[in-house]
Amino acid sequence: MAAHLFALKQKADRSGIGIRWVIFDPKLQPYLFATTTGPLLKENNISFSKKSSWVRHDEHYHVDFIVACESLESGVK
Question: Is the torsion defined by CA of 67, 17, 41, 63 positive or negative?
């Protein structure tokens, strides 16, 4: 999972977008960071949820990307 998140971060950086944060159970995050790739997540400033969500996130996670959107007033239909 850590390798997947790090790969997403690398691809996002190359694509000119960012990762706002990852929603993943805070109680399980220490195990994620203890993996071989885990320290790279912190070194690359990937933010993780600090509080538990109202929906369990122990068997999955969400990645919130930062993507610039074109204004609706730009004439794009």
Answer: positive
Write down the pTM of the prediction: 0.77
The CA distance from 66 to 25, in Å, is 21
CA 74, CA 7: separation in Å to the nearest integer? 33
Beta carbons within 8 Å of 51's beta carbon, 6+ residues apart:
26
Angstrom CA distances, 54 to 28, 40, 42, 51, 63, stand at: 16, 28, 25, 10, 16
Q: What is the DSSP letter of 67?
A: -
Domain ranges across the chain: 2-74
> What does the pLDDT profile of the chain (77 residues) look like in tens digits?
999 999 999 999 999 999 998 988 899 999 999 999 999 998 888 898 887 766 655 667 889 998 887 776 765 55
